[in-house]
Write a structure and sequence with these properties.
Two copies of one chain form a homodimer. By secondary structure, chain A is α/β, with parallel strands linked by helices. Chain A is built from eleven helices and nine strands. Chains A, B: InterPro entries: 6-PGluconate_DH-like_C_sf (IPR008927), NAD(P)-bd_dom_sf (IPR036291), PDH_C (IPR046825), PDH_N (IPR046826), Preph/Arog_dehydrog (IPR050812), Prephen_DH (IPR003099).
């Protein structure tokens, strides 16, 4: 039933979705729009999309399903712009990393009898660097793709069918889908995704200051150091919107880690250190 | 010139050294002692050693080179015990993760005309879990093996030749050797090794408390979470001695990270966040 998909934003995620759709057998058209032309041309060259759209709004107007794969504030902007343009027989969905504001905007602007359907989504997959050139058809394999859909959404039969079709495409890309409340989503990703990122950023920034002028020390740190700072390469452009739209939950998680580090520092020669290691061991043994 | 090597402690490092020695062509005998018999039997079964020594002191007495591959306080104990037993034509060396106390003990007890030679060493290689069964002939390939030798060491010709022979064996195992002052060593590893470890321990312990009862959330976190908590599996038994023998340097590094996290938390919606990300990006782009 899906003939045309539009991908707005052909960065790492948008390009990977295009590649994964093709790899899992989707045979309709995929048009792609990107803020910088070079990113769209790269995605086209990789056959993640089969045409470049010069106008995001026009691309969405012509598609059955439009995927917003841009940063969160750009997603919210496009949601506003498209809300009165799309029809009830079209679906808009996204990959934004925080879901509170996007899900609220969806309730306000979509999922009503005279509006298009909106399905808020968040694939738990990525790389520490972005860009179409890193696009990967297998990025979503064995990943979790979260949805924070609104149970009270009012959709046309076509809108509801497109939601179902998109969920099936995600499964065909190799992801496991989980439905979760948006507030719970944002609280949870603050712990398991945003806290690890900001920890790596702080650690990398600190180490750049302390040992950045002695590159041979990075070799000395070996695999452990490489892994603990890999996310230090993550782009601000993506994390700015996450920090701004999930501030309270991230503040809470960071404060908890600061306190935990202080406790550890004050107990380096005390029996409490053993308990901290045992508690940490438990987290890993369960995984 | 080396006929007999003794490895005291056949855990991950001791067993890996035995395997790496064999893989790089060492054809003399390798005897192994371990506090728990099972660890020595495992190393023997893997051919990392070719005989089990029941007594550590006796094994060292019979060897040209003895490698201490036990935790730091056990290393210091054995250094005391062996100092009056070994002869000037024997070499004792170690793999301890902090070098201040061990190098000071070496100056006090070894490297004198009537004493054996001692070469303080520290391979920057390991795994988050220990044990002979994880022993790996390639563990030291492309790793850095640090030495904190004393330029004023007084060694017999045989002692000096054994030091040179051991350094060559390390290179044959695939490691790059770097000589460094022991105080500088301990300060440096506090940043590039101990800080990442204690950060992973604090993060893992915190997450066990916050989301430990919801194992599906670990999947949600994906590769980023796995990498940032992998070191959470590290055993207290090894890190206790590191924390106790490098306390001041680790305290300093932990405090600096706490302050950095606080700064980041207080600037989640401020331009300073961009600078933190750019500083972190710099650390990674140099690597």
């Amino acid at each position: 039933m899906i003939q045309r998909i539009a991908i707005l934003g052909t960065g790492l995620l948008g390009t990977s979705v295009g590649l994964a759709l093709r790899a899992s057998g989707f045979s309709g058209s995929i048009s792609g729009w990107n803020r910088s032309k070079a990113g769209a041309e790269q995605a086209l060259a990789m056959r993640a999309i089969d045409s470049i759209a010069l106008d995001a709004i026009e691309a969405a107007r012509q598609a059955d399903i439009t995927l917003l794969a841009v940063p969160i504030y750009a997603t919210l902007d496009l949601m506003e712009q498209l809300s009165t343009i799309l029809t009830p027989s079209q679906l808009l969905t996204d990959v934004g990393s925080t879901k509170g504001q996007i899900t609220a905007a969806a309730a306000r602007l979509y999922n009503k009898p005279d509006r298009a359907a909106f399905l808020p989504g968040h694939p738990m997959a990525g790389k520490e660097r972005g860009g179409a050139e890193l696009g990967d058809a297998n990025l979503f394999r064995n990943a979790v793709w979260l949805f924070t859909d609104d149970p009270s959404a009012q959709r046309s039969a076509t809108g509801a069918a497109l939601v179902q079709a998109w969920r099936e495409l995600i499964v065909q890309m190799g992801s496991r889908t989980i439905d979760i409340d948006p507030a719970r989503h944002d609280e949870m990703v603050a712990w398991v995704s945003h806290l690890p990122q900001f920890t790596a950023t702080a650690l990398s920034a600190l180490l750049e200051e302390e040992v950045g002028d002695a590159p041979e020390l990075k070799d000395v740190g070996g695999r452990a150091l490489r892994e603990m700072t890999r996310l230090g390469a993550s782009p601000f452009s993506m994390w700015r919107d996450i920090a701004a739209t999930n501030t309270a939950a991230i503040e809470k998680a960071l404060l908890a880690l600061e306190q935990r580090l202080t406790y550890l520092r004050e107990n380096l020669r005390e029996p409490a250190l053993r308990q901290e290691f045992e508690q940490a061991n438990k987290f890993r043994s369960g995984s």
